[in-house]
Amino acid sequence: MNTKIDCRGLACPAPVLKTKELIEQEKPEKLIVIVDNEAAKQNVTRFMEYQGFNVSASEEGTDFHVTGRAAKGAESAVKPEKTIESKELKQKIMVMVGADRMGHGDDVLGLKLMVSFLKTLKEMGDELWRLVFVNNGVKMTISNSEVLPVLEDLEKSGVYILVCGTCLTHFNLFEKKMVGETTNMLDIVTAMQLADKVVNI
Question: Can you tell me the mean pLDDT for 88-101?
Answer without folding.
Answer: 86
